[in-house]
Each structure stands twice: as C-alpha cells, then as structure tokens.
Sequence to fold (171 residues):
Amino acid sequence: NDFLTIEEMQSAIKASETAYSRNIDIITHDACSMNMVEVAYELRELADYFVASEESIPFDGYDYEEVVSRLVRNSSMTPEQFVHEIVEAYKVAYPDECSLRASCGGLYTLSAIDLSVIKGITPHLNNFARNLTTAIHENNTAGIFGARNITYDFGGGAIDFIHFIETLQMN
Fold:
C-alpha cells in the first residue's frame, strides 16, 4: 500500500545484480512523469539506458507484445538499438493522430537516455542552478519568470528543461 521509491529500486537492482552476477542494460518506467534528469541521475550507475515518459502514460501503458516481438525478430540487437525499438513501438501504439483510438487521451511522449551522459552534464546543471539562484537573489527575475511562464509544462510543476533554457536565452 505504498509507492516504490528510488531508494527501493536502487536496492532491488543492486541485489539482482549481485544474485545473478549480471548488470542491467536498460531500466524503463511504464509510469507517468518519470523521465526527469533527477531520476536519470539516481539510476546513472545501475544501467546503461533509461526509457520513460516526461508526461502521462496512457492507461494501456506500453504495448509489451510489440516491444517483445521486436526483440524476438532481432534478438542480437544491442541495448542501444533495443531502447530505440521500445520508443518506436510506443510511437506506433500512440501516434500523433490519436482521435481514432478510444483509449487515447492526447499526445504522449517517451524517450531514451544514455545514462553515461548524466555524469558529464551534472556539473553544467549545478552551474546553471547556481547562476539562476544568484539571478533570483539579485532580483533579476523578470526574464526567468517570463521564460518559465511560456515553457512547455508537463503538469504538476514539471517543465521541459531544454525548452526552458532556450526560452531563457531568448529573454
């Protein structure tokens, strides 16, 4: 009767790797709003790739039959190729033109992250956060809040970070 935490997930993955003497190539979340840099950061040392959505996942979730059939058709594909196939299968299941699907409530997102890049971008994100904090403390907020207000919002306060940076640069 509770939610799976990142700490519990980390512990389970580490225990699995120890028990089976194998590393995990791909972590994927069939849950809403999980593809955030914060989540990827916490998983960065536990797998090579992370696949998740920045937005809502439809109630039907992933089309596992399609995902597995793609793997069966090409069982020798690399993890990098497979994450591409997972995203493509999702794209087929939830096309941009959703009006014909009874279960489709709108546009959906799914993307894959190469977790090896997370460590490299962390210092840049920290620097960006420090600069943003300094600007706010110095009351240089008009451009920041203006950019935030027009940045694509995934709901619940989560925004598209790249769009925010691009919008911030324009302001």
